[in-house]
Amino acid sequence: MVIRILAMEEGETLVNDIGKFVKKSEFHQINIPTKHRDMLIDHKNIEFLNSENVLEQINKINEIKNRFDLCLVSSWSTARLAYLCDLNYIIYFVGNDIRIPPFIKNSKPEYFSEPVNKLNFLERIFYKKILDNAISCVTGSEELYNYLKKYRNDANRIDRTIVNNNIFDSNIDPIKLLKNKFTFFCPQKIGVEKGTEELWNAIKICKSDFDVLQVEWFDEKSAESQKMNKSILLNKPKNVKLIPKIQRKDMPKYYKFADAVMGEMNSGHTNSIEREATLFKKPVISYNNLKWKIKMDDIEINSPFQPTSKEPNIIANIIDKTVENKEYREKLAMEEYEFMKELTDPYKTASEWDQLFEKMKLKNETIEKKSLKINQISKKITFFIANGFSFNQKLFKLN
To answer: Rg of the chain over CA atoms, in angstroms?
Structure first.
């Protein structure tokens, strides 16, 4: 029997990519409004909700929910919608959503002095109930799994992931730009979260000659991060050239053009940019925290990415070796490629998700949680009161 999954996302297609390869499940993808919608590579088989009105979103999901067995979400916004619709939902955490959860008072990253989440008491209770009511919660790394375990004893971990293979067109031409010297492509956001300061300090002490094409977009989660960004920009090395923000569909052209790629230098994990570039067989320089193991087939290993320290002199040494030593960069590129090819094997990844869906379907007869009507009404009232919605202006519209 095929398990029918109602999948809800915002500006990503992580869940959608899973749906392309599962064998025992069938996905219907819905994306809620987001300013990053135009960045999606693949719009196929995705239904887009155009309304920001919460009641209209709830009504839409309630109209179709009985066509499905389970719900899978990948953000607090989509989890909120699943909760308000009284669904049996699984939350897939992939980043700061679980590092700095909204149910913790004044939560913030360790590198900020001011909180990112300043939610009121009722809002925090509401989001904690969203987490508690999920039938399962999943993370994609040891680090995030350790965060999730603080709040859910039944936390799940699926380290394998899927890269959208629609971008790997061998016939695609590189972007037409002038290249006078060895050139790195750096599409990561500029900001503390991505370790830009450490990277740029390293670039300044490099001995080799190269250029960096840095996409001009920023981590702007708070006023503090925006202030930090201005400070970071004042320290920009001369050989770092800012280029306009790129549509996701055009990223492969830049991967092909570049001699190597610079990833993030803070968390110690590979993100979508590093995964994509690696599968283009480009050497990727990205901080690898050896504390975090990667789990594949019940075996925990370290990734081959370099450097394994955030010290500028060590980062600079890896950059110089990549520029000047062809044998080194080809070896690095191949090691990263072989590792990532296994980590992102779509069928092995999808198989782990199929197993989770089967397990959850056995425990939950229908997609409806079938809470008491009074509890369903209470959820909505708590949400609207907590968020200070006006009943006569922009009816229940998100701020």
So the answer is: 22
Pairing verdict, β 3-9 and 25-31:
parallel
* Residue 271 and residue 377 in one domain: no
- 391 is a domain residue: no
User: Is the residue at 301 inside a domain?
Assistant: yes
pLDDT at 45 over 90: no
- Report CA 394 to chain centroid distance, whole Å: 31
Give me the CATH number covering residue 253.
3.40.50.2000
**How many CB atoms within 10 Å of residue 247?**
10
Kindly give the residue spans of alpha helices, DSSP state H, lying in 305-345. Answer: 312-324, 326-343
- Has residue 247 been placed in a domain? yes
* Same-domain check for residues 113 and 196: no
Cα 397 vs. chain centroid, distance in angstroms?
Answer: 26
In total, how many domains does the chain have? 2
Q: What is the per-residue pLDDT across 134-186, written as a single tens digit (0 to 9) for each? A: 999 999 899 999 999 999 999 999 999 988 766 666 678 899 999 999 999 99
The C-alpha atoms of residue 4 and residue 159 are separated, in whole angstroms, by 23
**Residue 392, domain member (yes or no):** no
Whether residue 223 is found in the same domain as residue 195: yes
Q: How confident is the model at residue 115 (pLDDT cuts 50, 70, 90)?
A: confident
Residues 245 and 321 placed together within one structural domain of the fold? yes
pLDDT tens per residue, range 347-398? 999 999 999 999 999 999 999 987 767 777 777 777 766 666 433 333 333 3
DSSP string, 7-49: EEESS--HHHHHHTT-SSEEEEEEE---TTGGG-S--TTEEEP
